[in-house]
Amino acid sequence: MKHIFLLFFLIANFVALTAQNAPASSPDRGKESYEEIEKLDQGSNLERKQYKEISEKNRERIVNGLKLLTIISANFGEEVPESKTAQETLRKDYQIALRYYYRNAYILSGKSVQKVEKDLTEMLSKFAKVYDAKVQTLLSDCADAITETEQTQLIGDSQESGKPPQGNFVDISEAAHKLKIAYFQLNLALEMVRDNRPYEALIHYRISKDYGIKILMDLKGTEADKKAISDKFAKDLADNRNLISGQAAPAK
User: Fold this and answer.
1) Average pLDDT over residues 34-50
2) Distance of alpha carbon 87 from the chain centroid
3) Which end of the chain has the least Cβ crowding within 10 Å, N or C?
4) Which run of H or E residues covers position 52?
């Protein structure tokens, strides 16, 4: 009889653990009956308090992260093909976490929030790698463009010694100063990546990218050439402003 009772107890615990560890994206999670919620949301008062704080503390960060993911996946999703599916899954998982939170199932809510934040961080990290490659190439191009412009103007000055500069003179010092700022932002982004903070890294990558594009435009002498640069980086310029390329900026 004792063996039968022990077997029943083990099976019941296994079922409870299985339900608690079910995929967060299951559409019925968070809609369980109150009796089921009570069984699943087991823990001490201290645990409930801790997980409640986790749910409340991380909500704004997750919302901002999901918004960022929505924009960058719309702009550069083809470079991280799984981002569209992951984005939808994360939204559903966060919705489930909120269901538990509003039903005062704080342990379930807190654990769900932790999973969402972990998965969101992983996805943003993949985009951080994409941005890093873009920025590294862009800033290298800027350095080359500054050098070429400087050399061209030096040759022109030597040939026209004593005469005022001909054509459109470009102030190299200003472009060089902007490039230093761009590389400083890139270094900050790399620090954030090492600290596993891809959200902050992406912000710094955007700032660095914006400076790089401005440098290339500043080095062009005609408005037509400047527009060509602007058109080439139209998607990046929109993304730098936290906008989806091709969509109008919201009215203020």
Assistant:
1) 89
2) 12
3) C
4) helix 45-76
